[in-house]
Design brief:
Growth Hormone, Chain: A; membrane; MFS_trans_sf
Length: 416
Amino acid sequence: MNELTRSRVQQRTLWILAVSQIFGTIGVGVAPSIGILLAEEVTSSEAWAGLARTASTLGAALLGLPLGNLAARFGRRVALASGWWLAALGALLLVPAAQYQLVIPLFAGLLLIGSGSAISLQARFAATDLAADDHKGRSLALIVWVGTIGTVLGPNLGIPAQRISDATGLHVYAGAFLIAGVAMLVAGLLVFLLMRPDPLLLNRETDQLAGPALPVRHRGGLKRFAAELRNNPRARYAVVAILSAQMVMVAIMTMTPIHVTDHGGSVSLVGVTISLHILGMYALAPLVGYVADRWGYRFSIAVGLAIFAGSLLAGGLHPQNMGWIMTSLILLGVGWSFINVAGSALFATVISKQDRASVQGGVDALSNLCGATAAFAAGPLMAVSSFSALAAIAGIVLIPLVLMTTVTPKTAALKS
């Protein structure tokens, strides 16, 4: 396959991924907003509601590796479509859960809808399959960026759902999840029908034509993921970056609404603060991808660490000033974007070709698991200390990444 053909297929792949990502993330965006409200209504128990709130994150963690193995065996098209359709099934299960206040469909639906989170992460890696090394950051960042549209629209599905409720008598939450299910079904159909040729399989064929290639392995994903981290220092550095950024971002973001309301802030202020944080996470992604490609992944991660430091200092030193808290959350999102995009692009570049898809599923699963753990631990930590102490602990979590970025020999990271 010549470079012109490869470039054309890559552009087509990016368009398909971008459009399907918009539809899919509309559905995914319902879980952390309307899903939380539904969990509280159905369970009538704070403890059970808390467990239900983590179900979608747990689902993303559990399904990340199997979906990665599916991609390794059958290609991105089958894996991405299957992931979106599993998430759609979860959303459709939540329709009767909301309408009839059913607990078991509630947990099953939230668990399956986590598949959407896992597959939206896999989509960013799919964008790098055919990308040139000096364009992987930009290709990955584009898919991260378009996910902003769905992330913003998803939590607002209650508005059209109210109209459905008025017209049909369907519970407003049921209407929201019905729309989400249809959106994710469309995302799966777009990928399944249009992503031909499959970028992962085409890349594999190109490698085989170029010379003898190691056989692609489909099983033992956890062992291969562990072996990749043990034997590949650049992959290890990328994973530490991804996981560190995820834990710090989730821990601070999760506790900020509680901190704001405890200090007299309104629900509207919480909404604005979180919206600005999400904007910081995604709005600059194309610029971040360009910086990573132009100046290197290590440089981008270092920039992200500096921004994280500013965020933690702003929130930790001025915890009662809502202006500083908002600034802290914006910087938290931007810092996460720099580290996550650069770390993910580096990981996609340096991992072994025969393990690419399954190992990428492993890092996504671990990222979701670390995020869920951080969210779970942040509450008790702040309850026995303070928001400032939580910011300080988050800074400690970043120390290994700081050392790896500033002290480790430059050979540990590509394009340093």
